Amino acid sequence: MQYNKKLAAKKVSKAKAEAALQHRAINDFSGHIPDGLGVKVWGPLDVEQLNSCFTGALSDCVYYSVHNNAIFVGADANQAAAFEYSSHQRAKMPASLVYKFAPRGFPRTPYELEWLYKHYANEHAPHRDRVVMYLLINELLLVVQKLDESLVDRTMRALSYDPIYRDLQSPIQGKEDMDTFQRALRM
C-alpha cells in the first residue's frame, strides 16, 4: 500500500514538473516586436530586442540606458545614470533578484513578468527588491496605457489584461523606502 502512495506521488510530481516546463515554453519568448516601437540588435549573436525607450512614454523616475537597452528605477536609476554620464560606458545591471528575473529591467516575456510578480508578492523577499519590482511593474503598466493597442507585445498584453497586475499594493512603507523613491524622482 505504501509503495502505491509513493508511486502516485511521484507521478503527480512528474506531471506538475512537465506542466511547469510546458507553461514556461509557451510564455518564455517575447513574440513579434510590434512595428513602431523599434528594434535594437544586441550581443555577439545579434539578437533582436524591443527598444526599451518606448519613444518617450517612460516617466521621469525611470532611467533608460542607451548603452545596454535597459531600464533602471529607484536608487539603481540614479547610480546607472551617474555612472554612464561620467564614464560614457554602460552601467552594469545590479546584482539583485529583480535583474535576475528581468535582466533588462522591464520584463521581456510573460514568464519574466510572472516571476517579477511572484517575488514582488513574496513578503519574505528582500524588501528593497520588492519596492523595485513594484516600480518596474507599475511603470510598464503606465507605458502600456500610453501606447496604441497595435504597439503592445505579448508581455504588455498579459500585463494589461490579467487582473492580478492591477491595483498592486505598494510595498513602500517607511522613510527609507520613500528616500529610495524620491532619489529616483530627482533624476
Provide key terms for this protein.
187 residues; 7 helices; two-stranded antiparallel sheet
Structure description:
The structure is a single chain. The chain is mainly alpha-helical and 187 residues long. The protein is built from 7 helices and 4 strands; from the N terminus they run αββββαααααα. A two-stranded antiparallel sheet has the order 1-2. Helix 4 crosses helix 5. The radius of gyration is 19 Å and the shape is globular.
Outline:
It is built from 7 helices and 4 strands.
Helix-strand layout with pairing:
Elements: H1 2-27, E1 39-42, E2 47-50, E3 62-65, E4 70-73, H2 74-87, H3 97-101, H4 110-121, H5 127-146, H6 154-161, H7 175-185
Antiparallel strand pairs: 1-2, 3-4
Helix pairs in contact: 2-7, 4-5, 5-6
Which class best fits the helix and strand makeup? Answer: mainly alpha
Apparent shape: globular
Rounded mean pLDDT is 75
Helix % is: 40-55%
Total beta strands? 4
